[in-house]
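BUG: 3D viewer hangs when loading the predicted structure for this chain

Environment: internal workstation, default settings.
Expected: structure renders.
Actual: progress bar stalls at 90%.

Input used:
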Amino acid sequence: MIGGHPTIPQGIEGAEHGITSDGFFDIVKQPKRVAIVGAGYIAVEFCGMFNALGTETHLYIRGETFLRSFDPMIGETMTKHYEERGVHVHKKSETFKKVTKDEETGVLTLHLKDGSTQEVDTLIWAIGRTPEVEQLKLKDVGVKQNDKGQVIVDDYQNTNVENIYALGDVCGRVELTPGMLTNKTSTA
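Structure tokens produced before the viewer hung:
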């Protein structure tokens, strides 16, 4: 069984100052200000929790709504609901140029490409998952992957190689379970 890990964006100077869902449970003290980057259910769940606890919450999304892979009415309704509850939803957010950290205070400054900045105590990247399939040497057996390293499958979890199937995080569709890649003829 193979899975995935939360993605930290590449090409953003200082991205390592943010945490992922794996680091969420390591937060010792409730932040006064948090920025969450992402539009999926993990980002929205964290956003709702922080906001309900009284943290000034900023959600950065690329589109007009979050939960875009859900029914459009759900995304539109929930986005409006979160805004009404005081969440600062930054729509059509441009990519971050860099993240800087004040070593004395620990405050993070998010620098967006449009020149705007935002100071927060905690930054959470919730932008997806990266599959962990390197040790399987998929290229050696001819299993196709997309540009994100996810295994390409059809509606029935078939890869392009007969009797090799994949599901979960390694496919990048509905990332709710640990991923699995299996050979039908195998007993493992």
